[in-house]
Design a protein that fits this description.
By secondary structure, the chain is an all-alpha fold. Among the domains are: 99 residues, no CATH class; 197 residues, no CATH class. Helix content is 70%, strand content 0%. The chain contains 20 helices and no strands. The relative contact order is 0.14. About 2% of the residues have low confidence.
């Protein structure tokens, strides 16, 4: 905390400049990493991954434009400086929230028997088998051909029943990872055979469909919590896995863009980073919309929140209670840019979404809350916390990159539905094991 205070005091002596905001944002992240290593209980620092991706999304283009004179479509220095200022104070607020929370003492230890956890995992595998089969039947060929990315069409690759199945499948996969992280030494690889086949099947279909969000989330979820199991990974294997992961993301991007051609490794790495940075444009849109229309006061959150109840969002749209124009922030930004929703969406970012709905102070406060949540997530101990507590940490860390390009409430559906599904699985597993 003293290091954070010293950095802020030093910042006050520096000129108001995009480079100043970028440099001090990086120093805050470095300070957070160095001073908080002792509280880490998992392998992956989800908070650092989130902050780095947050800076790439919201600051990389302004810095490139100013320092390297890279041409960018938005070059108003006053606006870019203002947006960079918001990002700096957001990073500072996140770090403040992170430092305000003390590591959990794990006083309420939750212990599950070996038999219960194995049964719980087997029940997940059975559910996955049924749901994956149904999903492949209902998703349609447009999903597997990645048509939404290749044709620029407006329709989602998955919707209706397939869309709900997709969300539940992801929840079950991360619940399974949670159980693996809790089973530790007694877990045998033979209990994973069916899950590995099902996970491999869904992973391949995600690659074919161009679904990078799941690929990234799966990588982070596994990397963070699998080390708690009895699987041993050398540094070489981990490094090789990371390089392979980055190459895979690059190839998926090429597949999605329908421009297959020869590329080298550096091109793939650069494409992955710049794809994140390209989302900065919607941060500019959010600022322009707020300046002309005012803040939306949470209006675009009504759609995602109503989506917590299956089919409710569609019903509210059909009844004209919710409008497609403001159903979520991506729709607002797409309409602002293209004047129509009949094109591939512009997407959103966490700062853009908060700025649109609550203004600059909303961005700063939202990041404070997120800092608190990430501190709790990286300090979780799978062996001493309940399944749903550990699962919530898995979700937050798994989506740590994707949150920067979506909304602060994006993980809420997965956590809420996961809690309900956990009650069902817990009850069935308890009955089967007489516990």
């Amino acid at each position: 905390m003293r290091g954070l205070s010293a950095l802020f005091l030093l910042f006050l002596l520096m000129p108001s400049h995009i480079v100043t905001y970028a440099v001090f944002s990086l120093l805050i992240i470095l300070n957070q990493y160095m001073l908080s290593i002792k509280v880490k209980t998992i392998m992956i620092r989800g908070d650092i991954i989130f902050l780095v991706s947050f800076l790439i999304v919201h600051l990389l283009w302004p810095v490139l434009n100013l320092v390297l004179d890279v041409e960018y479509q938005y070059s108003n220095d006053t606006v870019l400086n203002y947006l960079a200022q918001i990002i700096f104070f957001s990073v500072l607020s996140f770090s403040l929230g992170f430092h305000l929370v003390s590591p959990s003492k794990n006083r309420s230890k939750k212990v599950y028997s070996d038999k219960f956890l194995i049964t719980y995992g087997n029940n997940i595998d059975i559910c996955l088998l049924v749901l994956l089969t149904t999903f492949y039947i209902t998703a349609g060929k447009s999903y597997f051909l990645a048509e939404v990315y290749k044709t620029g069409g407006s329709s989602d690759t998955i919707s209706g029943l397939a869309g709900y199945l997709y969300s539940i499948i992801i929840i079950l996969i991360f619940l399974r990872i949670t159980v693996i992280s809790k089973t530790h030494k007694f877990f045998k690889s033979k209990n994973l055979k069916l899950f590995i086949v099902l996970l491999g099947s869904f992973f391949i279909s995600s690659v074919i469909a161009g679904d990078r969000s799941f690929i990234v989330s799966l990588f982070l979820g596994l990397a963070a919590f699998i080390p708690f199991s009895n699987f041993k990974l050398s540094k070489f294997k981990m490094a090789s896995g990371f390089v392979g992961f980055m190459i895979l993301l690059g190839f998926v991007r090429i597949w999605r863009s329908n421009t297959l051609s020869y590329v080298n490794f550096s091109d793939l790495m650069f494409a992955t980073v710049m794809n994140l940075a390209d989302s900065f444009r919607v941060f500019v849109y959010a600022n322009e919309i707020v300046n002309t229309e005012g803040v939306y006061q949470g209006l675009t959150w009504l759609g995602p929140l109503s989506g917590l109840v299956p089919f409710l969002q569609g019903m509210l749209v059909d009844m004209n209670i919710l409008s497609l124009k403001t159903l979520n922030s991506p729709n607002v930004f797409t309409l602002y840019k293209h004047k129509t929703l009949d094109l591939t969406g512009e997407g959103s970012t966490i700062a853009s979404d908060l700025l649109l709905n609550f203004g600059p102070f909303g961005v700063i406060f939202g990041m404070l809350v997120l800092g608190v949540l990430f501190k709790k997530a990286i300090c979780v101990n799978p062996f001493q916390k309940s399944i749903i507590n550990t699962y919530s940490a898995v979700i937050l860390i798994a989506f740590s990159v994707y949150i920067s390009r979506s909304s602060i409430i994006y993980p809420l559906k997965f956590i809420a539905w996961g809690a309900i599904i956990n009650v069902f699985l817990y009850t069935i597993s308890s009955l089967r094991t007489n516990e």
